[in-house]
Specification:
single chain; 238 residues; alpha/beta; six-stranded parallel β-sheet; two-stranded antiparallel ribbon; 13 helices; 8 strands; globular
Length: 238
């Protein structure tokens, strides 16, 4: 699929129904494929962060995670079909790994959160193989040790919840050393699986207003949320 370029970031025009087939293909390959999930905030950040932009451009699958990207696509008639969220894609991958006995490594969040996420994932997908777990509080100097731990776990899929832009840049820098088939940046998804954070109700999800629900629950996010109108303004007047 030819990417749709939004402010220099190549977004894959994909639907959620296409994810299982792509994941199945990736898991049969020998190289490590990367999946990233930009929203307007990340696209805007990439304008000033060369490392983040390079990571997004080098990724194999760049999901349109953010209703602002879909609105921008409609305004400019770019061809993005629908919003495909990172956490829903992660769940699709977990389901596929559960069915095919693939191994998963959970990396990220605060100490103890990934462990609780693993417990809840195993309850949801009985028998899924969690190859390894580690929190996200490690220095870049420890990356070699982290890579060794992931590789020795024989994980097929790495979910890295290190926050952006760190997770995107880290995956790009390390994927040549990773032996897993998929490395995906998942932001705060481990917090959701652990029960530390909650997703917006389904009604908000369906209309792309999860950001508004988060703003109601966490008013301190208002400064970050102002990125969306700035993003749309740039799209309209570009």
């Amino acid at each position: 699929m030819k990417p749709v370029e939004i402010m220099g970031v190549p977004i894959t025009p994909i639907t959620r129904h296409q994810i299982p087939e792509i994941i199945a293909d990736y898991l049969e390959e020998t190289q490590c494929r990367s999946i990233m999930t930009p929203n307007p905030e990340m696209v805007m950040a990439a304008q000033k962060h060369d490392g983040l932009m390079d990571a997004l451009k080098s990724s194999d699958l760049v999901l349109p995670d953010g209703i602002g990207l879909i609105i921008a696509s409609k305004i400019k008639k770019m061809g993005l079909k629908e919003r495909v969220t990172g956490i829903d894609t992660m769940d699709q991958i977990l389901y596929y790994c559960h069915q095919t006995e693939k191994r998963v490594f959970l990396l990220g969040s605060k100490p103890g959160v990934a462990e609780q996420a693993a417990t809840n994932i195993k309850e949801k997908y009985s028998g899924i193989q969690i190859a390894g777990i580690h929190h996200g509080y490690f220095d870049n100097d420890d990356s070699a040790h982290m890579i060794q731990m992931i590789n020795q776990s024989h994980a097929d899929v790495l979910f890295a919840g290190l926050g952006f832009p760190r997770q995107e840049i880290w995956i790009q820098q390390q994927r040549g050393e990773l032996k897993c088939k998929i490395a995906m940046g998942i932001g705060g998804s481990l917090d959701v699986y652990a029960g530390v954070a909650k997703r917006a109700p389904l009604a908000f999800q369906k209309v792309g207003l999860e950001w508004f629900y988060r703003l109601m629950k966490e008013p301190w996010r208002i400064k970050r949320m102002t990125v969306l109108p700035q993003f749309l303004w740039k799209i309209i007047w570009k």
